[in-house]
Design brief:
mainly alpha
Length: about 160
């Protein structure tokens, strides 16, 4: 096997041949990382979590049911003056908001799935309990950031103004 390897020739690209791929040494790698670069990376990673994942950043990419659930959590947090609410209370508030907005509500298991999706986006957090209804739910981002990120001023305004 060694003799076969020694007898093989290594092909090298010709200098006058133009290739679409560039060697790794020519790639633009910043020699020094500046504050602007760090800030851009941090805002990309930790910036607006509610619109993370949209390439175009439009409000339509954030599902209506998720918007309503987050608004319901905001309402409950304001009403109870508590950061954490149980999933059971959140589902009841969500159902009331859906009735007022004339939107079909999801059942409690789907509400838990919706909460898990929002948790994976970093918007809220869940503290698991033995009984699903007793699972604690709380926002991980500021209220003003949530309202800004939802970008649906009419819907959010009517839900928050309407209360429970």
């Amino acid at each position: 096997v060694e003799s076969d390897v020694k007898s093989q020739t290594v092909l090298k690209p010709l200098s006058d041949c133009k290739s679409s791929s560039k060697p790794a040494t020519d790639s633009p790698v910043p020699k020094q990382v500046g504050l602007l670069h760090i800030s851009r990376v941090i805002s990309d990673v930790y910036g607006n979590r509610m619109t993370a994942g949209n390439s175009c950043g439009d409000a339509d990419s954030f599902p209506l049911q998720q918007k309503i659930l987050v608004c319901s959590l905001l309402l409950l947090a304001k009403q109870q003056k508590a950061k954490e609410v149980t999933l059971g209370k959140l589902h009841e508030a969500y159902s009331k908001v859906c009735r007022k907005q004339q939107v079909g509500a999801l059942d409690q298991s789907e509400c838990l799935s919706l909460s898990s999706l929002l948790e994976s986006r970093g918007i809220l957090a869940l503290k698991k309990a033995k009984d699903v209804r007793l699972t604690k739910v709380f926002l991980k981002i500021e209220e003003k950031d949530v309202e800004h990120a939802l970008k649906d001023g009419v819907l959010v305004g009517s839900i928050l103004a309407g209360g429970l």
